[in-house]
From TrEMBL:
MF term (GO), any: methyltransferase activity
Source organism: Nitratireductor basaltis
Methyltransferase FkbM domain ranges (all copies): 75-193
Protein name (Swiss-Prot/TrEMBL): Methyltransferase, FkbM family
Superkingdom assignment: Bacteria
């Protein structure tokens, strides 16, 4: 499979120009079969509404980023720690002529800026700040930014995140001012039910509640209020 010529795949309606050698065989098969981030792609419309200002942590190759960006009058600030993956995401956004995304290679954490180690693995969705998550190819150092300051500066009201277990610490420590909805993938295989309890307690203490209307398995939506909401897919049906 490796060494093949670049192709343009269509994954969840998003154009993905990519060479097989740029990702692991596991990721390549997921892209070709359409299983890559399939659950996130299906449920993200339950979270993001027209006019939202979205912060996405862990953009991956940019497929979910592109889907978010297609919602009417939305602006997205996306972060991806892995420089190779961030380059793929930029290519995907360019191929789909998406201009309402500000994509950065870096990380956001709660509190003052700090130097962090990021472990790059062959399966890009396994790359993380957790050294114990499995064998890695190399380590890079990243300077973090404070997530609460970023949220306040850009008037963010929606947080989307898939950050391979780092959500436990981030959601426990961040204040998340002005955020109305949080859509995240839980990684219970890394922190068990204790981690899910920590995340749930932290978000409840900030006024969020588990929202089953936008949740499926490990992909969950937390909302601050119970007001009626018109989701993008409902607007399309009207």
């Amino acid at each position: 499979m490796r060494g093949m010529q670049a192709v343009t795949l269509t994954v969840h309606g998003v154009l993905v120009p990519i060479e097989p050698s740029e990702v692991s065989p596991v990721i390549w098969e997921a892209l070709v079969s359409g299983s890559y981030e399939a659950k996130e792609a299906r449920w993200i419309a339950k979270c993001v509404q027209p006019d939202d200002r979205v912060l996405e942590l862990g953009s991956g190759v940019g497929i979910v980023t592109a889907l978010i960006a297609r919602v009417d009058n939305v602006h997205v600030w996306a972060f991806e720690a892995n420089p190779l993956t961030a380059a793929l995401a930029r290519r995907v956004l360019n191929a789909n002529q998406i201009e309402n995304v500000s994509l950065s290679q870096g990380v956001l954490t709660a509190g003052a800026a700090q130097e962090l180690k990021f472990y790059i693995r062959s399966d890009l969705w396994m790359s993380s700040m957790d050294e114990q998550q499995g064998p890695y190819l190399r380590v890079i150092e990243l300077a973090s930014q404070d997530i609460d300051a970023f949220i306040a500066r850009h008037d963010i009201n929606v947080l989307v995140m898939d950050i391979e277990g780092a959500e436990r610490d981030l959601l426990s420590k961040a204040e998340l001012p002005g955020v109305e909805r949080i859509f995240l993938e839980l990684h219970d295989h890394l922190y068990g039910l204790d981690g899910i309890r920590d995340i749930t307690r932290a978000l409840v203490s900030k006024g969020f509640g588990y929202d089953p209307r936008g949740s499926s398995g490990p992909c969950v939506l937390f909302s601050r209020d119970d007001k009626p909401r018109v989701y993008q897919e409902e607007a399309e049906w009207a």
